[in-house]
Amino acid sequence: MKLEQAIQSTKFKNEVHKATLNVLYTAWWLKTLMSKELKEFGLTHEQYNVLRILKGKHPEQMCVKDIGCRMIEKNSNVPRIIDRLELKKLVKRNDSEFDKRETVITLTQSGIAVLEATTGKVTALLESEVLMDDKDAKSLNGLLEKLRAGE
Amino acid sequence: MKLEQAIQSTKFKNEVHKATLNVLYTAWWLKTLMSKELKEFGLTHEQYNVLRILKGKHPEQMCVKDIGCRMIEKNSNVPRIIDRLELKKLVKRNDSEFDKRETVITLTQSGIAVLEATTGKVTALLESEVLMDDKDAKSLNGLLEKLRAGE
DNA sequence: TATTTTTATATGTATATACATGTATTTAAT
DNA sequence: ATTAAATACATGTATATACATATAAAAATA
Question: Which of A92, A129, B31, B142 is deepest in the core (most CB within 10 A)?
């Protein structure tokens, strides 16, 4: 679907303005798509993101700050996302021995199982819905990084 | 900044997977950038979006549904965003004469003034931070629509 | 060593998102 | 004409986002 249809507007100041709206809309579209699959597992998008980050270091523990700086949405409130994952017994909090300010987190066996099942489903969904070859994806990655060049 | 630095990860399944994360991250980056400017005017990103949509039809009134389907994030709770804009006297609610189920909304004079001031600032900010020429923006728009082709 | 500053996390508040439900009104079906 | 279905909006709840503040511990400084 063209952006014009999606937001029922044709008035863009220029192509750059249209591109900013297009990025925002595409992100919403992707999130909505993934959330439908995640919901089956009782997970939200950001809970899933935290589980995947923990998986990357497993079986090592990670402190809250290190999880936070790997999040896609940097202002996510990681302690509260962990609260909910802990309630579902998918992660476990421990006090750090090296630095008593830190809380360190690990995946539980249950967390690993849920993450693996979820990842399979999400990957399959994206493969079937995101119809883009590697060459185009590479161009897209380059352009997005160009857009953020001033970061 | 490269995505790899931004989310401190280099493990992407493939370029398409990286592109999905890159879109999500870029959207967050854009929203954060704009929010900084909007905050000066006491507006949130979605409140600003509603004001801009109303501007497109002004001085005509728009019903809640028509605003909703022009929103970038479709699941936004438009009545509640309007509640806050109404409290700030930036918009006005009226009962529709044609269909008593509808509430129709218009910008107030104050709303128009705030919107114009805000738009000027936001536009200037994007021009200075989004360093991309029209040609690249056009390619980017094409690729994003390719990504969502199955929509 | 004592004090200050910084860091890591948690908590509080307002708004937003996602979704379910309730209510009034309109449209369609019987 | 009456009933049923659909529509428009509002409201309620759980979670997330954005940001301010609080608390404890570590690091830096006097």
Answer: B31
Q: How is the beta sheet containing B103-107 ordered, strand by strand?
A: B62-63, B103-107, B91-95
Give A104-148 as a DSSP string. EEEE-HHHHHHHHHHHHHHHHHHHHH----HHHHHHHHHHHHHHT
The candidate with the shortest Cα–Cα distance to A21, out of B56, B145, B36, B113, is: B145
Tokens of B86: 């109404």
Is A148 within 8 Å of B1 when comparing Cβ atoms?
Answer: yes
Instruction: Report the distance from CA of residue A72 to the C1' of nucleotide D25 in Å, as an integer.
Output: 28
Asked whether the beta carbons of residue B72 and residue A16 sit closer than 8 angstroms, the reply is no
Strand C, CB < 7 A, residues 73-112 of A? 77-80, 82-83, 93, 96, 99, 101-104
Instruction: Assign A51 a pLDDT band (cuts: 50, 70, 90).
Output: very high
Question: Does the distance separating the beta carbons of B56 and A15 come in below 8 Å?
Answer: no
Q: Which residue of A has its CA nearest to B27?
A: A24
The pLDDT tens digits of the residues spanning B43-68 come to: 999 999 999 999 999 999 999 999 99
What confidence tens digit (pLDDT) does each residue in A125-140 have? 999 999 899 999 999 9
Phi-psi region of B89 (alpha: psi -120 to 50; beta: other; left: phi over 0): left
Instruction: Report the distance from CA of residue A101 to the C1' of nucleotide D30 in Å, as an integer.
Output: 25
